[in-house]
Amino acid sequence: MRKPWWFLCVVLCMLILIGCQGEEAQIQESITTASETLMTTQDPTESTDGGDSEEESQMAQIQEKLYQESALCAVAYVGYNGGSFAEIQEGFVTDGLLEVLPILSEIKEENLISAEGSELYLVIPREDVAISVFEQLFDEITADLTYGKALYTGFEPEALLLRGNISDIFPNLAILIEGQGGETLEYSPSLNLMDGTLYVETSLICDLTPYEALGIVAEPIVGDEDDRIGMWFTEALNTAGDTMALELTLDYEGNATYAYGAPDGECYEFFSGSWYEEDDLIILDLYGGAVSYDGEAESYDFHAQFRWEYADGKLTLYHVDGMGLLYGLEGGTFEFYSSNRASLIGLWSTSDYDSVTDSYIYFDLELLGDDRCSVLIHNGEGVTYAAYEGTWNVEAGVLNFNALIFSGNNYLKSMNQELGGYYRASFDTDGWLTLYYIDGDTLTEYMSEVGLEIFEPTVSYG
Question: How far apart (Å, rounded) are the C-alpha atoms in residues 335 and 329?
Answer without folding.
Answer: 14
